[in-house]
Amino acid sequence: MNPPERLYHASSVQGLTAIVPTTSTHGAWVHAVADPVLAACFLSTIGGDLTCAVGRDQQTGTPYVCERFEGALDRRYAGKPGSIYKLAGEGFLASQTPWEEELVSSEPVVVLEELCIDDSVAHLRSLAAVGRLLLVRYPSRIDGIPEDDSDLVERAVLWHRQFGEGVLDEFGTYHPHLLPRIRAAIAQRAATSESRR
What we know:
The structure is a single chain. The protein is α+β, with helices and mostly antiparallel strands. Helix content is 30%, strand content 25%. It has two domains: 6-136, no CATH class; 150-195, no CATH class.
């Protein structure tokens, strides 16, 4: 399947003329999406999924930002400037990361157009006001995000195995109440692995 003719990439850095690959857990890529509203959700990535989950509502097809704790929306986006960059879709690949909305390029991509945003949270609220974005405020959940935050516990265990003890610092920053559950899950996993030897 060919990529869309136009894709969108959001960044907290303004004035870019090209987007270069950055290294993440899935490799070194330029990340983009076909929906500019969905791209806007990445104007700030502070805390990533630990502050706000981003996705597309399975029932309505509308992009969403879902707070993972009270005040997470403002903590991540308030007062944060950024830009949404329009890119040519040529050279982008689908199905390279776990998120089906995401397309990636291993090469730098020239910017076709830039939309500068002064305050990311104000931009998101304006999109929500006209029904183009769902802002799901804590403690409400959407799209199967579990109320007990078990998905975050599982992610912490996985990242701990991949990247070591240091990843728990970020979980402690945003979800200190989960640390006892995370440490218990890590210990249980280690005990299970040991018993299989």
